[in-house]
User: Which sequence fits this backbone?
């Protein structure tokens, strides 16, 4: 009679290695989630279950943290993350035109990701670089005094 093998490895490439780097302590929840997001790109349902099991805490606690902090994404994001500031200084200096140009170019709304998972766009509150308003951040690189034309150019250089 053959052996029964139970597969417990996750379906998400790299997830098990990320889990193995963190001690099984509840205090590791946020660092673990940040690590998962860095490696997987977002926090999937499977990742939440795996984190809960690894830390021996309820899934609802993991879900509560993931949905509380805006830094965590529940859906797969684009390879390029475009964030347009909507803070007061940027708003006054034309942020609305920037977001309009970006979303028109990519064919998606703020909060969405292109079908090919190349770009995600989101509106963000003040980046703390108000002197550079309007500000757009792409893959953590800050662009200041952005015009709609410049925003399009930045996107085009990434494709
Ligand atoms: S309002 Fe946009 S950086 Fe502060």
Assistant:
């Amino acid at each position: 009679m053959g052996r029964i093998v139970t597969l417990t490895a996750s379906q998400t490439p790299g997830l098990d290695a990320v889990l193995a780097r963190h001690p099984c302590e509840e205090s590791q929840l946020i660092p673990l989630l940040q690590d998962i997001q860095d490696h997987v790109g977002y926090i999937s349902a499977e990742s939440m279950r795996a984190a809960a099991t690894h830390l021996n805490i309820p899934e609802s606690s993991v879900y509560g943290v993931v949905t509380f902090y805006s830094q965590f994404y529940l859906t797969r994001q684009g390879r390029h993350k475009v964030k347009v500031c909507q803070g007061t200084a940027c708003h006054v200096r034309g942020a609305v035109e920037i977001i309009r140009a970006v979303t028109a170019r990519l064919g998606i709304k703020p909060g969405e990701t292109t079908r090919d998972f190349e770009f995600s766009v989101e509106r963000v509150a003040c980046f703390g670089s108000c002197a550079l308003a309007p500000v757009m951040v792409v893959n953590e690189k800050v662009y200041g005094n952005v015009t709609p034309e410049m925003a399009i150019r930045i996107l085009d250089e990434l494709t």
In short: Residues 1-7 have pLDDT under 50 and may be disordered.
